[in-house]
C-alpha cells in the first residue's frame, strides 16, 4: 500500500533467503500492485480480470 506521498507504507521483511514476491501492473488500480506470495499473485490476477471488481489495493 502506498502512503499519501506515493511511498510504500511498509517494507517487506523476509527471513528466507529466496522468496516469492513481485509486482503486477494493474489497469484497474492504475498502479503497480506488489504481491508477496504465489497465492496473492493469483488473487491479484483474479481481481484484475473479474468484471465485478472496480478497483483494489494490496495489503497494508
TrEMBL record:
Q: Which GO terms describe its molecular function?
A: endonuclease activity; nucleic acid binding
Q: Which Gene3D superfamilies does its entry note?
A: 3.40.1350.10
Q: Which UniProt keywords apply?
A: Endonuclease, Hydrolase, Nuclease
Q: Does the keyword Repressor apply?
A: no
Q: Which InterPro entries match?
A: Restrct_endonuc-II-like (IPR011335), tRNA_endonuc-like_dom_sf (IPR011856)
The domain of life is Bacteria
Instruction: Supply the name of the protein.
Output: TnsA endonuclease
Q: Which organism is it from?
A: Paramagnetospirillum caucaseum
